[in-house]
Amino acid sequence: MIARIVVVPKPVVNDPQGVTVRQGLALLGFGEVTEVRVGKYIEVRLDATSERAARERVDAMCSRLLANHVIEDYHFELEHESKGAMR
Amino acid sequence: MIARIVVVPKPVVNDPQGVTVRQGLALLGFGEVTEVRVGKYIEVRLDATSERAARERVDAMCSRLLANHVIEDYHFELEHESKGAMR
Amino acid sequence: MKFGVVVFPGTWSDRDCGWVVDQVLGAHLQYLWHKDADLKGCDCIILPGGFAYGDYLRTGAIARFAPVMESIGEFADRGGLVWGICNGFQILCESGLLPGALIRNASLEYRCEWTNLVVERADLAFTSQCDEREVLRVPISHGEGSYFADPATLSRLEQNGQVVFRYCDVEGRVRPNSNPNGSLHNIAGIVNSRGNVLGMMPHPERCAEAELGGTDGLKLFRSVMHSAAQVLTA
Amino acid sequence: MKLEDRNVDERRLREVALTADEYRVIVESLKRPPNDLELGMLGVLWSEHCSYKTSKALLRRLPSSGAAVLQGPGENAGAVSLGNGWAVVFKIESHNHPSAIEPYQGAATGVGGILRDVIAMGARPIALLDSLRFGPLPESRRHFDGVVAGIGGYGNCIGVPTVGGEVYFEDCYAQNPLVNAMCVGLVRANDLMRARAEGTGNKLLLVGADTGRDGIHGAAFASLELDEDSSQRRPAVQVGNPFLEKCLLEACMDLSLTDAVVAIQDLGAAGLTSSVAECAGRVPGAGAKIDVSRVPRRERGMTPYDVMLSESQERMLVVVRRGREADIERIFETWDLTSAVIGEVTNDGHLTVVDHKEQVARVPIQLLTEGAPLRRLVGLPPEPAPALDIDALPPPADIGAALLRMLASPNLCSRGPIIRRYDHMVGDATVIPPGGDAAMLRVKGTKIGIAMTTSCNARYCHLDANLGAQLAVAEAARNIIATGAQPLAITDCLNMANPDRPEVYWQLEETVSGMAQACRSLDLPIVSGNVSLYNESAGGAAIYPTPVIGMVGQIDDYDRRLQAGFKHEGDFVLLIGSSHNDLGGSEYLKVEHDMVAGRPPELDLARERAVGKLILTAARAGLIKTAHDCSDGGMLVALAECCLLGGIGMRGPALNPEPPLRIDAAFFGESPSRFIVSAPSRATPELQSLARRHHVEIALLGLTGGDALELEGQLKLTVQEMREAWEGGLGGPA
Ligand SMILES: Nc1ncnc2c1ncn2[C@@H]1O[C@H](COP(=O)(O)OP(=O)(O)O)[C@@H](O)[C@H]1O
Ligand SMILES: [Mg+2]
């Protein structure tokens, strides 16, 4: 099973990185960009017996370690592994 | 339009963060995790006339600024904006 | 007086803190290994600076699950002195022993430079040798030292007087341009409501000897020594 | 031999960067064609980067011995005694090519690599320095930002302070930035290690990162010019893991607590192959046998070829006494490090590689380490540099305005925006922080101070390679002396263009001669170093010859150290040494007249020695409070820096040089062997007579004090005005 987890700064938290990226894009001529937020993407491969079990475990990983609830929100998707390695 | 961009280290490239996070998860009792890769998640809101135009522009942003093609791969999804702010 | 200095993989101020405790202050020094839950009878636990577990994912995120942290939590509950410096402050926030979080510097750059700190609380075990409103010159060295807490937490901190140090100018004025990292309310250090757990981003162990550029940091170490002496005589 | 006998095609030879002639030598000495793995191993070890086949003969001309030298060239780093049982270990290394491709990771892994060289000597790294060259800003900002962030990213995380270095911006580096990193370590002289694989049957243990397919043929790549083709090799970029290296560092320090370790050797360019071969090559007759199947891997499907040539970072090879493996493994486990016994020391003089039971390669160690035929190239002097008609230069219209432009020049302005991104304090030992001349670290528990610097004005080297190299050595020594420390020894990094061009080879020869001459005259051995060739790109310019000099010095009582910035009001400010019309190659000529021309300043090594001796004598006698050497930008820029660093002005009479000395040369000329010192008024007569005794000129410039630099009727700028120009020179945050 592969979990694709996205962790983003909460809206109330300053995101200087997002601001800087937007400015950088504007300098490069991407003036159409009105907002940028920068977060983390974490891909976790795990052994699990069922999707439900996996969901529970990944949720626990996120709330205990992968995201800090003071400053971050998270969500994730699960994917049954076809065969190959992770991208 | 909102673009949800994921930037990940190329599979052949060393990912020290991923390795360390996997060790951290193991310490916490998540021994079922066999692999972790850590990348960036970037959410960009932009004005675009069509999905095709948006796709082209976001692709240009990624290859010019958001991803370092020497060591990273990227992919993204586009979403027509419903209403509210970005998550 | 026995100081315990905790060592995680990736910690680097352990030896600097140890040097000050042992060689400058002349107090008892005990290094505490992160895998070891025994606090070995220490009276004050220092969580030093560094990049525990590389600060990968988030500063302090992995370190806070080390066995030693559980004992430190219990020790703090019993009123023991816990002092987080730089990475140690980040670990204390991650573990919930202090509120809030430390995020990326507003400049997005690492900053290693001298800062001025105004002492807001001189009645703590950590600051008893300082005067209230005194300005200390103490260096910082971090990439993620911008203090954040939600509005409710922040106002509670202010109301309870839990802000111990703020970045200021040489005269002690708290100004936006004396803020090196974008911390809310120029916060450089906070204490828990009980007053026994201090977290601060600046490095007092780097300014305990004149040849290193200043001795203001020594006041904090002396304060802890002094408070212990008081406890013993009381 | 005919091509068809070669068993390989030209493409394959190019890939392993071997010539047909070299291939012939291999076949002749093996008495058979090498198999593919053997060819790959020989290719990396015979690359310029590892074999020094072009420069080795020249490097022998460099003096490398001296009373204090404990270890000269040939080991992972040089070592010099400090007395009191302490030794200082140091080395500089280039990471130019990787940094051109991926500035952050290139610079970061450069720092990681040089740290491991010092760790391999059993020393604890105590400081880093970085010597950097970029094209002009703003075009080169991506390189500049990435490199500075990468050096900080690695050094800050591992907790070794970055205390010095230099940065220059020059057109010739636009396509070929230079990133040289120097590491200084400290060890008890008795605990100094040598990476020698002694003792048949002793075990080879690999520790640290898992091995991936990183940078295969990276060493060969570093020895080729950057061209179109390099984009194909891009996966050669490696990602550093400073956290892992920190654990490795601490574990290696713990190794000295046992007597189970025979040697430690880092894995750098050419990975396991080079590491094992070098380690065995230092012991006559020694060989090694390795089982690649025991090497912990990061990826599936790796071949013996991949494993032997991988350049994965953060790995070390430890030679362990037979039977003591468990003691060592226990130490590594404490730090959560993966280690594996991968082979053993033999006495057959061969490097034998097996995969499980099957032998996959067997090559004589000496063929790997010493077999590369030396290349004998021819040098031809290049076109002479454009002459400078100094009489055609108009005098400066407004000296103050010129000074402000000079202070804002990227080559002279404040390095604050870089320094503050580096942790330069961790370790509680930095007693002179970066920003002045040399930095200084104390040896804790003693009064010993270690001064350190890097130095090279490559514009001089471009105009005259020999003189430029001498000037680089002299300036490094002056930086050390300005802190009150005695220069001890050198590590050097020779950054050059393509030596196959006769002009470049000539530059290399002249550079080495110039260095050797200056080192002999100043009594400074070169104990370690590095050579980086082919720093030119197909379409782009060749770099200036850039022989970066890294130097360490010693002061027995760091309480007597000197710094550059003025300390107190009311002190006398004096210029020590004599000034000439030395405008050739100067920053003034570039900034004010947009010219790179003329001959570099003349250097009189006897005078250099005399001036240095005077400063050290005066410093020991407590006659001077501050000292700053005059270098790039000349006397007036040095004076302004004394004001800026101390936050105190200076006031003096107008300066009217006596002909033939020109006014522009007096202010901005770059005559070497000069210092600006400040002294308490009562010490000044003694200082003056001391100078006379040393036959050194001394001139009073004025008195410290106030908030401006003022020469009556000639120049008046407030320190604040100067600061604004000086601090803005790198164009906002780095
Ligand atoms: N320019 C030089 N001057 C003096 N010694 C040098 C120079 N270049 C290389 N050396 C010495 O040659 C040896 C091999 O250098 P190098 O291959 O860079 O070492 P490593 O592989 O350990 O990084 C080292 O001992 C180094 O100090
Ligand atoms: Mg080496």
Please explain how this structure is put together.
The complex is a heterotetramer, with two copies of chain A (87 residues), one copy of chain C (234 residues) and one copy of chain D (734 residues). By secondary structure, chain A is of the alpha+beta class. Chain A has helices at 16-27, 51-66; strands at residues 2-9, 33-46, 72-79. Chain A has a three-stranded antiparallel beta sheet with strand order 2-1-3. Chain C contains five helices and eleven strands; from the N terminus they run βαββαβαββββαβββα. A nine-stranded mixed beta sheet of chain C has the order 2-1-3-4-11-10-9-6-7, with helices on both faces. Helices cover 25% and strands 25% of the residues of chain C. Chain C has 234 residues and is α/β, with parallel strands linked by helices. Chain C has one domain (2-228): Class I glutamine amidotransferase (GATase) domain (Rossmann fold, 3-Layer(aba) Sandwich). Chain D starts with 9 loop residues before the first helix and ends in a 7-residue tail after the last helix. Chain D is α+β, with helices and mostly antiparallel strands and 734 residues long. Chain D contains 25 helices and 26 strands. Chain D has a seven-stranded mixed beta sheet. A seven-stranded mixed beta sheet of chain D has the order 21-23-20-24-22-25-26. The chains are: A alpha+beta (87), C alpha/beta (234), D alpha+beta (734). The A-B interface holds A 4, 6-8, 11, 21, 24-25, 28, 30, 32-48, 57, 60-61, 64-66, 73, 75, 85-87 and B 4, 6-8, 11, 21, 24-25, 28, 30, 32-48, 57, 60-61, 64-66, 73, 75, 85-87. Strand 2 of chain A pairs antiparallel with strand 2 of chain B. Bound molecules: adenosine-5'-diphosphate and magnesium ion (MG). Adenosine-5'-diphosphate (ADP) binds next to strand 3, strand 17 and strand 18 of chain D.
